[in-house]
Amino acid sequence: MHLTKEEEKLLEDDNPAIRKAMKLLTKLGDIYGAEEMVEVSSAQASGVSYKSIGDPGIKFLEEFAEEGGEVSIPTFANPAGMDLEKWREMNISESFAKKQNRIIEAMEKMGITITASCTPYLWSNLPRKNEHIAWAESSAVSFANSVIGAKTNREGGPSALAAAITGRTPKHGLHLEENREPTHIIEVDAELESISGFGALGSWVGREVEDGKPYFKGIKKAGTDELKGLGAAMAASGAVALYFVEDITVDSKDTRGLEKLQFGEEEKEEEYQELNKTENPELVVFGCPHCSINEIRDISNELKDEEMNKELWVCTSKAVKAWADRMGYTEKIEEAGGKVVCDTCNVVCPIEDMRYERTGTNSGKAANYLPGFCEQKVMFSNKEKLIEKVTK
Predict the structure, then answer these.
(1) CATH topology match: 5-177 vs 276-391
(2) In angstroms, rounded to a whole number, what is the distance separating the alpha carbons of residues 198 and 214?
(3) Distance (Å, rounded) from C-alpha 197 to C-alpha 341?
(4) Is 239 helix (H, G, I), strand (E, B) or coil?
(5) Where does 33-180 have alpha helices with state H?
(6) Which pLDDT tens digit goes with each residue over 34-50?
(7) pLDDT reported for residue 111
(8) Measured in Å, how far apart are the chain's first and last C-alpha atoms?
(9) Which helix (H) or strand (E) segment is 380 a member of?
(10) How would you classify the pairing of strands 339-342 and 311-316?
């Protein structure tokens, strides 16, 4: 692997954290057959929830911080395991909160911005087309590659931190243009009426193509919220990090000779049935990935004057919640009995320790992860039906 003189100096740097980070990246580069490093303009730190990384993860982060680790490029934190300010209102235990705060303190010490969100592109971190970045959260990686046209692999927690410290990552995988070609054509002949419809499509396609790069035909309309839901579901049921939607996302590609898959109404209904294991959720959660301001507005409008008889969480970032506060959406949701929850989501929050067993969601990503990560039976449906479940 060829290193520049500057990169060679990083391997001998006086700062032990820089040396450790650079050695980690060079070893990864050798494993993946990278010929060189590429400079990256931003990073996304994963492994923020104590539920996900446990005590070994705390030790890893604190050691980097104590050794003088400091990020050299804008770096944003993924969701934590709780609302960092209102964790008591979520019934998070004192012991969990103490461990979670140690993770946050270590990241702050290294200069990581504690955004605690999986959707940095909605409010502060919007890369340019062809810009190389080092992001880690699967749905954000998918959105950055596919909708924005930036270039990133799905970094692991240690490699994302190392990239943040050194400002570079091994140049392999999706950093190389020759690896950004579609592998399958998905012909869509189904009504995608909601975010859950896009989630069902993504969940089905992810299992079919695994780590492939699908090219969608037949999707007539899709906005930011639908595209983030589509990519998130494919990354959860499979390992899709790049996809194409004809006439909607990044540049068109040559699709001649590719395997074709058909997704119609029958496949959509079967996917809903596959993901739906209960009709009686105790908790309904929106915001996996984190809700946009438009999603929060629509949820607040759907509630009308209804009062809730079950728990409702609307998960989002602190930045988006500030807008929701200003527009009165937060107040409307809370007056109805719901919660606007920041910094976390129902996948990385320890909801299984909070005595929840059945969760409703309109997210294809959450519907795939909740049974295994959180021991939940899932109701997977659209927004309107889920709100009916908490208000009637």
Answers:
(1) yes
(2) 14
(3) 24
(4) coil
(5) 50-66, 94-109, 138-143, 157-166
(6) 999 999 999 999 999 99
(7) 98
(8) 62
(9) strand 377-380
(10) parallel
Structure tokens, 196:
């859950």
Could you tell me the fold of the domain covering 5-177? Aconitase; domain 3 (3.30.499)
Neighbours of 236 (CB within 10 A): 26
For range 347-371, the mean pLDDT: 96
Please list, in sequence order, all residues whose beta carbon lies within 8 angstroms of the beta carbon of residue 252, skipping any fewer than 6 positions away.
244, 246
Other CB atoms within a 10 A radius of the CB of residue 286 amount to 29
Question: What SS3 state is found at 292?
Answer: coil
Work out the burial of residue 310: count CB atoms within 10 Å of its CB; fewer than 13 is exposed, 13-18 middle, 19 or more buried.
middle
Give the pLDDT confidence of 170-228 residue by residue, as tens digits. 999 999 999 999 999 999 999 998 999 999 999 999 999 999 999 999 999 999 999 99
- Tens-digit pLDDT profile for residues 49-102: 999 999 999 999 999 999 999 999 999 999 999 999 999 999 999 999 999 999
Show me where the domains of the chain are located: 5-177, 181-274, 276-391
Q: What CATH number does the domain located at 276-391 have?
A: 3.30.499.10
Band the pLDDT of 392: cuts 50, 70, 90: confident
Here the tokens at position 312 are 């409702």
Which two three-digit tokens encode residue 108?
């702050």
Per the prediction, the chain carries an average pLDDT of 96
